[in-house]
Amino acid sequence: MKYKNSYHKYVFALVTLMAVTISCSKKFSERIPINAPTDANFWKNETEATSAVAGSYATLRIAMNEMGMGHYYYGDTQTDQFVARTNGEDYPAITQIQWQTFVAPSQTFRALIKLRRWDNFYRAIDQVNRCIKYIEPIPLANFTSVDKQGAKNALIGENYFLRAFTYFYMSRIWGDVPLVLETADDAAAAPNQPRAKQVDVLNQCIKDLQEAIKLLPYVTAATTTRPIRANRGTCYALLAHIYAWRGEYDKVAPAADSVINNGGYSHVSRATRASYTAMFKGNSSEGIFEISQNAANEGSLITANYGDINNSIAARTLKSPYLLTQLGNSLFTLDAGTLTTLFPNNADSVDLRRRNGFDFWGTTDPICTKYANIVYTGPNNTSPLSQNNIIVFRLADIKLLKAEALAALNNPSGARTIVNEIRALAGLGATTATDANMFEEVIQERGRELFIEGHRFYDLVRLARKTGIIRFNGTGTITRMTSTDFNLGKYYWPIDPILISLNPLLTQTPFWADKM
């Protein structure tokens, strides 16, 4: 991608500094930054390579935190989990799937412009491409780990995973996206590229993951760094999701089994599940891939770099007594009708997810308490910080993805076994869904288990593709998506016109082409 402002050296300097201050663990972040790094004086040894890889994670973290909670804007707020907003600057457009709404190009601070742009994702891609290019030539003699080749392989493999993940993430949002596999010495002079077909982008993701799997080991010990740095289990989890998105369900179960059987992951205990805040702080035995931001220093940097607590998922979904600075209703209202469907009233005293993951049940403003890991850094409970990792993939997710695949492949009994396993963890008995409705039941179980974890929108896309059932609208009066809209591809975001003005080779996402 070509941008009119050159950010290439600036981003590298920034992410190298971030590798010291906000990366994935204390050990991972204790690296000495170079104040003005260039390719000529950097990339000399393992310490510098590790700092650069930490920068890859850091830039991805910025992209997923667009407007403080981009991951949830893309994955949750425009689904049946939430009431469609009718007030606020850009929130009605975002939550009603009116993504074409005009915003003056000069108002680049606006949420709708930021969410329609992919700049930060391509900054992450460029950092990854730099790591892939420059780590390989570093001599093994300059690595200090006992297993020098293993350490080098891991750093390169992590970047192949991150490139695959970032392109998959973008493909689910925009469909076709430019495919950039080389870093440019001068980003301002890099040639423009058109949007590549999604099938080609995802094929590249699979190719990158196959390379990463060769380079990365499984990490079977449940350490604090396991879910926040890629390993072989992380790669297979992403493969399972890519195949499910493509509808290649025969390939989902083998990839999922590689995670389930070999990754060393385990479900957290029922006692831990009774307190959802413990799981969603991050680094649990169930975590497969997470974006790290649960430490005190990371929380403070979220305030500095992504907007304060008012822009986080915690601030948007909590209220007092879980967030003492929000005395009124929560800012984003959950759809009470959807909650009743997902968690029937007769499960009130049984389902641990409902009993311990929600409050104000039965009111017009119920809330989910998953993200209630709040600390207050000012006097009298002021200056709150949210300390929750973004839980991207976890074991229950991958098991239910396997169940989805089995249901799609006419194996409802196999799907039922997995669904019942997840229900048992929540204290529930066996599902009563018929074999004919098992695919839909798996999606609904994912809705119960993975509520506000960034999955719901994509789960509903797969549900609609497979069964024709449209569930985006919830129980409100606003129609977000019709079957006709869906079949025309409304679920892919438009790109902001600013991007097209910067790169005339870009074309608008088809559904939105005549609407912007």
Short description:
By secondary structure, the chain is mainly alpha-helical. It is built from 23 helices and six strands. The strands form three sheets. A two-stranded antiparallel ribbon has the order 1-6. A two-stranded antiparallel sheet has the order 2-3. A two-stranded antiparallel sheet has the order 4-5.
Task: Present the secondary structure layout.
Layout: H1 8-21, H2 26-29, H3 46-64, H4 70-75, H5 91-95, H6 111-116, H7 119-135, H8 148-174, H9 198-215, H10 232-246, H11 252-262, H12 270-273, H13 276-281, E1 287-291, H14 296-305, H15 313-317, H16 336-342, H17 352-357, E2 358-359, E3 367-368, E4 374-378, E5 382-386, E6 390-394, H18 395-408, H19 412-425, H20 438-449, H21 456-467, H22 483-487, H23 497-502
Antiparallel strand pairs: 1-6, 2-3, 4-5
Helix pairs in contact: 1-3, 3-7, 3-8, 7-8, 8-9, 8-10, 9-10, 10-11, 10-18, 11-18, 18-19, 18-20, 19-20, 20-21
Organism: Sediminibacterium goheungense
Protein name: Putative outer membrane starch-binding protein
Keywords: Cell outer membrane, Membrane, Signal
Report how far apart the termini are: 22 Å
Give the class-level CATH name of the domain at 8-216 and 495-512: Mainly Alpha
**Low-pLDDT stretches:** 2-36, 299-308
**What class do helices, strands and sheet pairing give?**
mainly alpha
- How much is the average pLDDT? 89
Give the tally of β-strands: 6
* Gross geometry: globular
State the CATH topology of the domain at 8-216 and 495-512. Serine Threonine Protein Phosphatase 5, Tetratricopeptide repeat
Using only C-alpha atoms, the radius of gyration works out to 22 Å
* Helix-strand topology string: HHHHHHHHHHHHHEHHHHEEEEEHHHHHH
How much β-strand is present in the residues?
under 5%
Write the CATH architecture name of the domain at 8-216 and 495-512. Alpha Horseshoe
Trace the largest sheet across and list its strands: 1-6
- How much helix, percentage-wise, in residues? 40-55%
